[in-house]
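User: Okay, second chain of the day. Same drill as before: sequence in, structure tokens out.
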Amino acid sequence: MAVIDVFNCKAEKVKQIDLDDGIFNVPVKTHILHDIVTMQLANRRSGTASVKHRADVKGSTRKLFRQKGTGRARRGDIKSPLLRGGGSIFGPDPRSYSYSMPKKVRKLGLKMALSSKLKEDKILVLDQFQLEKIKTKEVCEILKRLNAIKALIITSEKDEVLELSARNISGIKVLRIEGMNVYDLLKHDSLVLIESSVKAIEGRLQG
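Assistant: Same drill. Structure tokens below.
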């Protein structure tokens, strides 16, 4: 098992803990990480591009002139696509770009993302990250002390004070275990784990 140091908010080493090799030390396959990130970004697309078709345009359904005898092209009502202000032909409609991947592959992707962070020495474990009140400046000072400028902070449970304190800091994001995902793990330079979240991660990804 890999051993990692645990620090406090003063950047002082307090102890060491073991990390499960089945989660933090698996072979990293970049094509799997790429596929999962592509899926996540596709699922975030809004797909709201839309036009008004003939039936959606407001206007009379009266035929503008008779079918034959005028020498002009036959045409229906004022909502015809041939006229200015008429409906569009073959325009885009709202659609969903989302798709899914097997649960085992997504779980494997999380293990690979965590393993890559450990191999790059980009994982930092804190014994706790407690704040007395909502204070952005205090979070900035702690992260600067730990040399975690662009960091993803993972907590085992809801910590509203920390979440509100860190939400306006550029490059910093706080996620709970349930929201941990491959895209955010790879996007941020360093990963800050609260000690209690390590066991929770191992419990979620084991098997």
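Residues 103-119 form the longest helix (17 residues).

User: Thanks, on to the next one.
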